[in-house]
Predict the structure.
Amino acid sequence: MSTRRGTALVTGASSGIGAAYAERLAAQGWDTVLVARRAQRLDDLARRLREETGTTAETLVADLSVPDDLARVVSRAAGDDIGFLLNNAGINGYGPFAELEPDLLAKVLHINVLAVTALTRAVVPGMLARGDGTVVNVASQLAFAGSLPPHPLPERAVYGGTKGYVVTFTRTLAAELAATPLRIQVLCPGLTATEFHRSRGQEPVPGDDQAVHAEGGMPVGQVVDASLAALDGDRVVCVPGLDEPALIDGLAEAEAAIRAAARRGES
């Protein structure tokens, strides 16, 4: 284990990418603040991290769709020890848009958009003042699938829209902070071997043991590997499994071409 690095706050830490990322950060010497809805899972993870790495692991049981819970986590994120933020918490709310329950729709927006934005806002000023810090916001490859019909993809208008926001928000923030020492990344995994598809998000998957959804997918360790490698390479957009990084550059070039063409049309 390396020397102490500071404190990393990880949301959605009770399973999947969040738990695996927290384990990797603790192994690198980061103390952790673990945030999720399932207290027992957080306690089990925190105990393991302390025993295996000798780091400090705090737990914050919170539902980020609840304003008071989000406010508690935002307050902790604003602490002067937070040097790494992983905004991983998210729910899918899949289903036909015309039939989507209003309360579930609101929950998806609060967790996938509002919490990501509020927590990023909480950490960035302190990171800028200290001259160091990392923010990783977890989106999805479905952010790039807006025009594709469902089946075999899920019915995902709201989920895909929220992840599209995370991609645009993070890329734009990274451009704004490009001249600073901060590292900003949006991580866009595809189907990953987690329990994400075992619940639409109203309630967490029950039980203390993690179980992978039937669809399988990329192992979470490979997703974390890709994210950390992209951070080392100063890449803002990380798409695990993408063998042609030039495609991401092509996205930016296409956007520039659209804006240029639109300006020509105004003349």
